Amino acid sequence: AELPSLNAVADELDLQRLRLAVADALGMTSANDDPEAVSEAIFNLAIHSFMLALHSMDDQEESADALGLPAAVVELIANSLAAFVTAGCASGEGGLGRLQVLGSQLDVISPLIFGGLCRSSSSKKKEARRRCLALRGLCVWSLAALGCAVSLQDFSGLELWEWSSNDATWAMTLVKGVLETSPEDLGSLQLGLADPDSSSITLPQNLPLIKRAAASAALGMASPDVAFSQATGDDLEGLAITVQMRAAELVLHRADTAIALLNAGLLPVLLDFLEGDLGLILQLAGFLSTVSQTELQGDVGWASDEQSDLMQAMLQEARRASAIFASHVESDAPAVWKMLASVFLGLPGTWPAPSPALSLPSFLHDCAELAFSCSPSEQAFDHFAKSCLNVLGRGCLVDDMSAALAPLCVLAARSQVVPTTTPAGSESSAALELTSALSASSPEIREAILHKWDRWRGAPLPPAIDQWRALVRDGCPQEAAPQESPPQEPARLPPPPDMPPPPARATGGGALSHLLREAPNEYRCAIDLQLMMDPVRSPAGFLFDRGTLSKALKNSGGLCPKTQRPLTLEDCPRVPELRKQIQVWVRRVQQVRLEQQQQQ
Question: How far apart are CA 308 and CA 318, in angstroms?
Fold first, then answer.
């Protein structure tokens, strides 16, 4: 196609002609074409594809699975991004500016992508399946476009945060779409760009690299670098930024990240993807421990009584997020602890940490803190601890044995495991092996362990630690006093029932974050108080998001999350009139945001 005709087609918001134009754009490799002119033409096509997505919202059918986009429109956007990357539009003169505009356009439609990938109930309908695959392809190509400007080897949580408009939920949604993409899923969607009855998502050649970079970036989202990235020198000029304010900002950012992980449903997808990747599994332990924020269960210095009411409110918001995260992540505990234990299997003679911050003692400390929110079963702890003690027995992975044994004992106590000298049946238990290791330790090591417990960073140590403390202090286990029940972990701080949504804050600046925070109460799901994408009404009168309710029923064994009575998805009809109201509200908010971006 000639460049002038391509531009002419791009000016028309017509799906079929845009399909043909994108097909031509994908084939624009002739050396006779002006590279910069080609880039500009393909960039204009991509922009018009996004505009078509916004207009398509007005014509959605009320029976759609979620507040999403038609499959054909999603395919068009994904292929426009594919053309953008293939033609090298992100490089050369004006490349960075084009990327910034595309990022803004993606931000505007992010609620629709979130609805299609994270809130749609599973459907076997051809259109729903087609749209889901196209949405995943869109996520892949969006990060592939960013990869043209940022080396994927250096892609971090900070780059992901900035690309997702400082919106944690949007960032996690993008990563989920990327990780769920496979060549097998999209193998049948390679051809037929100009055929209205077939899909046409192409795939980048470096898909494995994009997926690993995306996973690593998601696991880096809770870092201080990301939390404080918006605080520039100009922004802070004239403001007295205290240590307490910084601490509160970091805690709230991590609370946002934890809730975003849940909203996007990313954790199970991450667990599937990380299998066998020791470096990323080490990052996973640190990430989950960090966003669980177990240290908030004790006294928090920056939010003491002397601090302002604002600080107290921020602490309560963060504690609420921590409690919600703990209540949801418990269902993934078996998979989480199986993966963490896999670090010790087939371990080489050296620890595979990509950085000193991910040393074996640091990994064990993360696991011990994670156990407060996501406790392993007795069998899971036994497998984890025995695998760890087997590695420690080699004597070549740690210089300070106390730094490994101290968190391992805390993990045991949080798993309700106490010292013992009695074998469990015919096999040696982890409790017996850990007891023997401590008894055989030198006085210097035992003294160092006690010192580390006295200075423990994190949630308050559980009552069961007292029996491990006695063993370490005396060098031999003591018989525990008879108890009616084993010592229990200190109670977590539960979220108040039906607590209103948290107030809007400046920690997330994306369209998706804004919608999820600012939605009117009547548009919120009764389960998680998030914006409903596909509202349904239960026989008891509660309004739920259909995708959220489907997951809740699966986790509860078919019990209503509000009444605790038997309930099925079929008992809850869709509410098309409410869905239309939500659609109009979302469209209005998006239009305002688009106008603001155009003014900037």
Answer: 16
- Rounded Cα gap, residues 113 and 175, in angstroms: 12
Nearest to 166 by CA among 214, 105, 119, 228: 228
Distances (CA, A) of 185 to 83, 133, 181, 189, 198: 21, 7, 7, 8, 14
**Residue the block writes with tokens 């007795």:** 378
For the residues of 81-139, what is the DSSP string, one character each?
HHHHHHTTTTSSTTHHHHHHHHHHHHHHHHHHHHIIIIIPPP---HHHHHHHHHHHHHH
Please name the amino acid found at residue 175: V
Q: Which long-range contacts (CB under 8 A, 24 or more apart) does 9-16 make?
A: 10/41, 10/44, 10/45, 10/48, 11/48, 13/48, 13/51, 13/52, 13/55, 15/52, 15/72, 15/73, 15/76, 16/196
Enter the DSSP assignment of 461.
P
Rounded to whole angstroms, the Cα distance separating 309 from 551 reads 37
Cβ within 8 Å of residue 68, ≥6 positions away: 60, 112, 115, 116, 120, 131, 135, 533
Query: Per residue of the chain (600 residues), what is the pLDDT tens digit?
Result: 333 444 444 344 455 556 666 666 656 544 445 667 777 778 888 887 787 776 665 555 444 444 567 777 888 888 888 888 877 777 766 788 888 888 888 888 888 888 888 766 555 677 778 888 888 989 999 999 888 888 888 889 999 999 998 899 999 999 999 999 887 655 544 433 444 444 456 678 788 999 999 999 999 999 999 998 865 444 444 445 677 788 888 998 999 999 899 888 899 999 999 988 888 999 999 999 999 998 888 777 766 655 567 777 888 888 888 888 888 888 889 999 999 999 887 665 566 655 555 688 899 999 999 999 899 998 999 999 999 998 888 765 677 889 999 999 999 999 999 998 877 665 668 999 999 999 999 999 999 999 999 999 888 999 999 999 999 998 776 654 444 444 555 555 454 444 444 444 444 456 677 777 778 889 988 987 888 888 999 999 999 988 889 888 888 889 999 999 999 999 999 998 898 888 788 777 767 766 665 665
Q: What is the pTM of this model?
A: 0.82
Phi first, then psi: what are they for 459, rounded to 5°? -65, 155
Q: What residues have CB less than 8 Å from 38, skipping those under 6 apart?
A: 3, 25, 28, 87
Backbone angles phi, psi at 335, to 5 degrees: -70, -35
